[in-house]
Amino acid sequence: MGHLKLLALFIVCLLLLRQVGSSPLPKQNSVQRRLRRMTPFWRGVSLRPIGASCRDDSECITRLCRKRRCSLNGTQE
Fold it and tell me: Beta strands of the chain (E only): which ranges?
């Protein structure tokens, strides 16, 4: 009976090792950006001042991101 339990444990260990050694899923070519979902409070707290680096208009306190910087005016500088 002890040998049967040992054999079962060995098989379970082999199955777990096989799962660990499996290759990861291939990366998809298209990059999907997840939109940020923040409450209005956190949106207001996290807005960046003029001159700070930004990726889009929603990150700046002035809502104007120009040349990756928060801008005061809407013209392209």
Answer: 65-66, 69-70
